[in-house]
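CO-FOLDING WORKSHEET

Operator: S.A.
Ligand of interest: fe (ii) ion
Run index: 159
Mode: holo prediction, single chain
Checklist:
[x] sequence pasted
[x] SMILES validated
[ ] output reviewed
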Amino acid sequence: MCDYCGCREVGVIGELSDDHELLMDLVARIRREIGRDRAGTASALSELQSRLRLHLEREEEGIFVQLAAEPGFDAYLADLEGDHRSAREGLLSLEARSELSEAEVVGGLEELEAHITREEQDLFPACRMVLSAEAFAEARLAHDRIAARESGNEMAASS
Ligand SMILES: [Fe+2]
Ligand SMILES: [Fe+2]
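OUTPUT RECEIVED:
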């Protein structure tokens, strides 16, 4: 890793982009299963929920914090944070194992897809243009902190 070739940036944005790809695969899986296979839908939804939870934290504690330090992004970030809030109140609050409302799930998936598209087409290019190597390094540390927190949680849950 260095400060010259953009590899730090590729690390952070690349990781978030990989999350998006995985989330979109799960969205497609849920769409295939819903109304057809209850157990399959529940397991895909709970996997989506745990990956999405972590992904939102990475963005909020990483690039969102870094972008907030730049002028002119307040309204833009408030909007994206609003999307995160509705994901938490929607998709993430659904009890995967209970009776699911198809309309609620499908509505949540549509919102998530629109949010991901916006981040890929708009937020990530903006980050590449605006954020410094130092800002990306800070975001990298945030991702690492979240990973450490998560593995601590998993160890606590399994002990
Ligand atoms: Fe997001
Ligand atoms: Fe995202």
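REVIEW:
The mean pLDDT is 91.
The chain is about 80% helix and 0% strand.
[x] output reviewed
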